[in-house]
């Protein structure tokens, strides 16, 4: 399941990989030139996406390696499962907000203060809505709307990781970290309805457990203040 989740995140993090997988899912197989023509993508982008996906075991070549013309590609079994995971999660209502518009502004402030050099983005994910705050506008410019929506919803919605582990001897919530091309994303389930995604630089040099503790403690403190 984790392999499928990692592969889904890899597909979702590039609109070119996402489009290629969507085409292969719908058509069963495809030639790079035909995929490019029918998706309005430049062929170099399609060829690069196919190469990347093949390296990850998501796409396979369906003809002999020695065949130079008519190189037909299709999704592997892993690729089919991963793309299905992505396709199921493209329904979230997503809003990009500044710190004041984030559901927990105090969390934004705490993370920016503690991890300012590493923090890329924070997403607050509920069952059908998500709010995303980027640490700088230039990071937001890296994503088109559909890719951002797909990345967030895919990374937020893996059912076997939904339940906190508070009742187990280890204590604390269950979290998972997945490495994307430019970032490390840590997912923390805060309760049954809310999952937090924190994106940091891939060369994050602080313990993930410390990041998770900061998220949990800050949101818990805010909840206690609200109850008072």
From TrEMBL:
Give the residue range of the signal peptide: none
Q: Which Pfam families match?
A: DUF7522 (PF24366)
Query: Organism's domain of life?
Result: Archaea
**Gene3D superfamilies, from UniProt?**
Winged helix-like DNA-binding domain superfamily/Winged helix DNA-binding domain
Residues annotated as transmembrane: none
Q: Which InterPro entries match?
A: ArsR-like_HTH, DUF7522, WH-like_DNA-bd_sf, WH_DNA-bd_sf
Protein name, as recorded:
Transcriptional regulator
Naturally occurring in which organism (per UniProt): Haloferax profundi
